[in-house]
Amino acid sequence: MPGLVIKDLPAKLHRKLKAQATRHHRSMTKEVLAVLERALGEEDRAQEIPPPFKGRFVLTDEFIAHARREGRE
Question: Is the pLDDT higher at 49 or at 33?
């Protein structure tokens, strides 16, 4: 399993992480993994769900290419 070393971790962040790990009854390593999984999981979900469509028509690659051929930028 790959490892990760974090250098120059600010003392304030270390204290916060340690306190949060204690509250969740986890080691600091397990707490960091939980925080990373949560943060990266949110990012993955955000990329899966497209933003709501607010225009009158969808700007597809085909539409943009056609507009460029007509000289529109």
Answer: 33
